[in-house]
Design a protein that fits this description.
This protein is mostly helical and 458 residues long. It folds into three domains: 91 residues, Fumarase C, Chain B, domain 1 (Orthogonal Bundle); 183 residues, Fumarase/aspartase (Central domain) (Fumarase C, Chain A, domain 2, Up-down Bundle); 59 residues, Ribonucleotide Reductase Protein R1, domain 1 (Orthogonal Bundle). Strand 3, helix 8 and strand 4 form a beta-alpha-beta unit. Helix 6 runs antiparallel to helix 19 and helix 14 crosses helix 15. It is elongated and about 100 Å long. The two termini are 54 Å apart. The structure holds arginine. The site of arginine (ARG) has 11 residues, from helix 6.
Length: 458
């Protein structure tokens, strides 16, 4: 097939080289953005008298028809075209004749593809942010329902101090809130129009870049044409934000996997988000959580791939940059799928406060509170820490817990111990006393929930 760019060259390219070079298989998903961008471009060309107003209108009508036909399925992508930009232009010219050939005045595929990708990511990122919000909402409602459910908080995966399940979940809510912030921040820097930068140097035509930018909902225009066509920072920023988001989902997935194990049994995931084993009838596998954890690596890979693609590129456009799209698309698809499965998985998760409590009752997670008790009675913390540790050792040797040890036993370690020590080391009291901002007390967790809710409304 004759190439749109035939002229400089006469010979056909090799079939394998054509396939290698072509991107329509994957960039066809930007057809809406490509057509919308071209409509704004045609309108500007007409308004500025660069092409006749009647021609601009014919082009816009033709593009509208192509958009509708692609959406309805009446028109199929021609995989023999090099990319989506060539395809749309080719169909346009088939449909409206030579007038269609005027569309590509005062632009290049270099600014066109940069434009399409920004428009595409603007739409997808808004979707990803709204899906992230769904996960946040699921976390909040589980945190609300479990704000008084006591379980051991861990460090080094060793039982450390009593916390509430609501507190634990709200930690993830804070992470996701920062993710939303990062995505929003990146999207603001992304909303800059490259169209009109043309191939690299700008153009001799009297264009109006602001007119196109405003028509397409951009906040600004790229101020240097070389940068406008070769900047992919917006992809990297979003990929970084997605990689961090996935890291958070992956950490929570890891916890869900642990918590739903027979050893923990803190939660039970809904049958809708688990699978059975083909051979072991007793099993309920947390496949969705495992896959989210597993797919995190893909998104990291997408980020690394694009960083690597860009690192050696001289200005301005280079064909290497065509590699940006598959990385970006893969990350977008992966993150969306993970979020879509995550929100309902959290929402339908059944918590088992009795098992959390049971785990909290063994492991001496109130030993810090026992030491604090002595400190309040005047002992320096280091000495209190030591006594508390000796009492724990005694309990372990005698197969008992701090709550069960009689007062006489305590007195052998320090005369400061009185009957009121038992209420001090009561697990619920340990939680309730942690009223510091951001702490685990019910009131503090309620404040955290209110904070996140407010941030989501803003
Ligand atoms: N398919 C190309 C890409 O994705 C479009 C831009 C091509 N420009 C060029 N001068 N070959 O990057």
């Amino acid at each position: 097939m004759a190439k749109l760019w035939a002229g400089r060259t006469a010979g056909d390219t090799d079939q394998i080289a054509d396939d290698f070079n072509s991107s329509i298989r994957f960039d066809c998903r930007m057809f809406r953005e490509d057509i919308t961008g071209s409509m704004a471009h045609a309108a500007m060309l007409g308004a500025k008298g660069i092409i006749a107003q009647a021609d601009a209108e014919a082009i816009i009508d033709g593009l509208q028809g192509i958009l509708e036909d692609l959406e309805s399925g009446a028109l199929e992508f021609d995989l023999a075209c090099e990319d989506i930009h060539m395809f749309v232009e080719q169909v346009l010219t088939e449909r409206i004749g030579d007038v269609g050939k005027r569309l590509h005045t005062a632009r290049s595929r270099n600014d066109q593809v940069a434009l399409d990708l920004r428009l595409y990511l603007r739409r997808e990122n808004a979707e990803i942010m709204s899906l992230t919000k769904d996960v946040l909402q699921a976390l909040i409602s589980q945190a609300e329902a479990n704000k008084a459910a006591i379980l051991p908080g861990y460090t080094h995966l060793q039982r450390a101090q009593p916390i509430t399940f609501g507190h634990h979940l709200m930690a993830y809510a804070m992470m996701l809130l920062r993710d939303m912030d990062r995505m929003l921040d990146a999207s603001m820097r992304m909303n800059v129009s490259p169209i009109g930068c043309c191939a690299l140097a700008g153009t001799t035509y009297d264009t109006d870049r602001w007119m196109e930018a405003i028509a397409l909902g951009f906040d600004a225009i790229a101020m240097n044409s070389l940068d406008g066509v070769s900047d992919r920072d917006f992809c990297l920023e979003l990929l970084s934000a997605y990689a961090i988001l996935m890291m958070h989902l992956s950490r929570l997935s890891e916890e869900l996997i642990l918590w739903s194990s027979w050893e923990f049994q803190f939660v039970s995931l809904s049958d809708a988000y688990t699978t059975g084993s083909s051979i072991m009838p007793q099993k309920k596998n947390p496949d969705m959580a495992e896959l989210v954890r597993g797919k995190t690596g893909r998104v990291y890979g997408d980020l690394m791939a694009l960083l690597t693609t860009l690192k050696g590129l001289p200005l301005a456009y280079n064909k290497d940059m065509q590699e940006d799209k598959e990385a970006v698309f893969d990350a977008v698809d992966t993150v969306k799928m993970c979020l879509q499965v995550f929100a309902p998985m959290i929402e339908t998760m059944v918590t088992k406060p009795e098992n959390m409590k049971k785990a909290a009752q063994t492991g001496f997670i109130n030993a810090t509170d026992l030491a604090d008790y002595l400190v309040k009675k005047g002992l320096p913390f280091r000495s209190a820490y030591k006594i508390s540790g000796q009492l724990v050792a005694k309990c372990i040797a005698e197969h008992t817990v701090l709550e069960e040890l009689p007062l006489e036993a305590y007195k052998q370690f320090s005369e400061l111990f009185e009957e009121d020590l038992y209420s001090e080391i009561d697990l619920a009291a340990c939680v309730e006393k942690r009223i510091s901002q951001g702490g685990t007390s019910v009131a503090s967790v309620e404040a955290q929930i209110a904070y996140v809710k407010e941030a989501l409304e803003a």
